[in-house]
Amino acid sequence: MKFGEFHIGSVRLAVPIIQGGMGVRVSSSALASAVSNEGALGVIAAVGLGDAEGQDMENFRERSRESLVSVIRETRARTKNPIGVNIMCALTNYEDLVDAAQEEGIDVIISGAGLPLRLPSLVKNGRTRLVPIVSSARAAYIICSAWKKRYNRLPDAIVVEGPLAGGHLGYSWEELADTAHVTLERILPEVVKTVHVFAEEGRPIPVIAAGGIFDGQDIARMIGLGASAVQMATRFVCTHECDVALEYKQSYLAAGKEDIVVIQSPVGMPGRVIKNAFVERILKGERVDFGCAYRCLSTCDPKKVNYCIAKALVNAAKGMLDKGFAMCGSNAHRINSIVSVKELITELVSQTRQCLAVS
Fold it and tell me: How distant, in Å, are the alpha carbons of 115, 172, 250, 327 from that of 135?
């Protein structure tokens, strides 16, 4: 089996690894550019880039757009290779951020936390490749059908994210508990089969596997199940180039398996995080430093939630983990050192090729 050059439409990657978009401010210009410089796809997370403390909604929107444009330009200044942006459907300024990214000529937009059914109508530059994130074959079918019918367009690739992923999860609590049946290994082949039906009408739609992928053995297994590439996020947190504070990275190094828990997020989805005193407080239902001067999430009801996830994640990115938490994948506890992006990608590629050679 082949593990090498990978295409998302006209975007060529020497290494078939996508660095997952991590917000808030976890994957910004330093990390994304470093990943792209190694031939993989570095991805900026668009969520929470605008400093909106004490500002009104309009100022938040304006600063968010300006900040995304600034980060895209900073990243471009550091790499000549393709870069991507991850934009959550649940954001109230989703359309504005998509518009900013496409105006900047971003190579790839990756979109999840909801079904990005309107995404093709928002991107008009003709060069930006569109990649939705799904958690089931049914979601992949809905997106492909809707895009084909409404816009005569199909996704340039699809990310299928399994239940072991970090951050927000597109699964119910019941599905997350059903670890015997709801697995990436089961879902991935179903998605590959579903998109193949649409791909036969025109061009290939590569499927990118994500969620709980830790090493080359995992990557080789996903390739064997039909994936054309993988998306990985957690492994990139403990790199020198990752944009978060050292304290955030140290929380990964200190975490045991029992410290990785799933909580209910104001986004309206379960979210996987590293447990700390702040997490214990919100799990008890305590209302923690809450205040919402703007509505950044269409799915968040400020009258019902007991904490502001935007504040919590901004604080965490700055290293203030007493006022927030680090999101992570299920295998974060396996990380035991901070390495360079180059070292990590070299290791992953070498491991994968060795595993594929003997399979």
Answer: 10, 11, 30, 19
Residue 100 is encoded by which pair of tokens? 């900013």
pTM of the model: 0.95
Q: How far apart are CA 147 and CA 155, in angstroms?
A: 8
Mean pLDDT by 10 residues, the chain (359 residues): 88 98 94 98 90 58 91 98 96 94 97 95 95 97 97 96 94 91 96 91 88 98 97 98 97 98 90 96 84 71 82 92 96 98 98 90
Q: What is the DSSP string of 21-52?
A: P-TTTTSSHHHHHHHHHTTSBEEEE-TT-S--
The 8-class DSSP code of residue 332 comes to G
Q: Are 81 and 40 in contact (CB under 8 A)?
A: no
Q: Tokens for 280?
A: 């214990």
End-to-end CA distance of the chain: 9
For β-strands 11-13 and 17-19, DSSP reports them as unpaired
Query: Which domains are seen in the chain, by residue range?
Result: 6-244+336-358 (3.20.20.70), 248-323 (no CATH)
Q: Who's near 122: CB < 8 A, 6+ residues apart?
A: 95, 98, 99, 102
At 184, list the tokens.
Answer: 């990436």
Q: Amino acid identity, residue 54? A: G
Strands 11-13 and 6-8: antiparallel
How far, in Å, CA of 255 to CA of 179, rounded? 22
Residue 298: exposure state from Cβ atoms within 10 A (0-12, 13-18, ≥19): middle
Of 316, 223, 337, 218, nearest in space to 271 by CA: 316
Q: Are 336 and 255 in contact (CB under 8 A)?
A: no
Token pair of 236 as six digits: 């990139």
Q: What are phi and psi of 13, to 5 degrees?
A: -120, 135
